[in-house]
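Q: Fold this one first, please.
A: Sequence and structure below.
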Amino acid sequence: MQAQNHSGSCLCQQVTYQVSGEFENFFLCHCQHCKKDTGSAHASNLFSGTAQLNWLKGEDKVKTFTLDGTRHVRSFCQDCGSAVPNIQFDGALLVVPAGSLDTEVEIEPTGHLFCRSKASWQANLSQATKFEDFPQ
């Protein structure tokens, strides 16, 4: 089987990257750190122990933050703040924010993490009114 190639970027397009290989897991994390990190209900990250990350542009604009006393790591574009991939555990794990990808992935979410920290307001999200764009 041929390795998949995925490309991604930050919001301002100053950081671009390519991932060669497969993602083994896709987790939606509801922990307090990820909620603060994303400003949303959860983080959506793809994980691979075998895929290779290649920065195409802007690697010098990538800043990595590790929250003291935790395993929480976040990499982001210094210009626009968008989450971008990082490599953790001494190079053993590639973590790719799913929303930073410009290409589709075939893997479905593997599961939800830290559900005890789920935001109370997300319990009935499927019932909220849906708009294709901004409401008129």
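Q: Good. Now the second chain.
A: Here it is, same layout.
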Amino acid sequence: MKLARNSTAWVMAPIFLTAGLAAAGIWLLSAVALAGFVFMIFFHRDPDRLPGGDGMLSPADGKIIHAVPDRITIFMSPSNVHVNRAPLDGFVRNIEYRKGTHLPAFMGRACKNQQNRMHLETDDGEMELRQITGTLVREIVCYVHPGDQVSRGQRIGMIRFGSRVEVSIPTGYNLLVNKGDKVRAGETVVAVRNS
């Protein structure tokens, strides 16, 4: 199974803890640490994805919790893949880090949480993608930098342990998803250009 970038320490820590506890004969805690190892492997998985048909792709796995013609919000539960992907081909104009609150990511007010705001220039205009942390860990890992070119479906970063992604829809696109829909990063087409 392929793991997300920069996740080795997160995955290895519980296995070392498991070994240490087992060597000390503390079997119950060793079993708990082993369960933690399995969770870390599951959480940091990074499957290959093939982009869906033409149009704007979902930047995250999860459930649509807000959908209006110019913006969608996707909640990622701990069971979702947390690697984020570029919705369209584009140029990373800038990335702005903002401090903020640490509310549960599914709450409406979580839009004020700690976040990265990535501005992409696409052939259809500028779009903004926000990687927003949740209550736990609160770590955003960004794989791209200002000045980079990104391809539709390319891995651009990840957020650890419960989070959300908000993305603007370029003018001239029709939204294809609704609140409550489940989407997959780099596969699900969430909006298409007007014909």
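Q: Anything worth noting on the second one?
A: The longest strand covers residues 90-98.
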